[in-house]
Amino acid sequence: MGLFDGILGAVTSVAKPITQAISPIAPLLGGLAGGVGSYLGTQSANEANVALNQATMDFNAQEAQKNRDYQTEMSNTAYQRAIKDMSVAIPRDGC
User: Is residue 22 within 8 Å of residue 29, measured between CB atoms?
Assistant: First the structure.
């Protein structure tokens, strides 16, 4: 019997009782580990979604403001544009 056989025998004698003690609860530990992993993955995805949604809302708010500004400009200059259009369409040389 060599040195490594003695080490292997010692490790086996320690590991066997631990394995026997853990094997009845191994499925529970596996399920618990899976649940924790799933929870952490979901949390990470949720945080990413919140950040993406905020960026989308910020962009949409900026675009909506641009549209409101454009609509205000069009409304404020409607009369001037109509007068210009009529002056082109109606000759002023003494009809």
Answer: yes
- Residue with the two structure tokens 């962009």: 59
pLDDT for 29-54, tens place per residue?
Answer: 677 777 777 878 888 889 999 999 99
CA distance 22 to 30: 11
Interior angle at CA 20, CA 9 and CA 18, nearest 5: 60
Average pLDDT (7-11) is 69
Separation of alpha carbons 71 and 88, rounded Å: 24
Domain boundaries, the chain: 27-87
- List the alpha helices (DSSP H) in the chain: 3-22, 26-76, 78-89
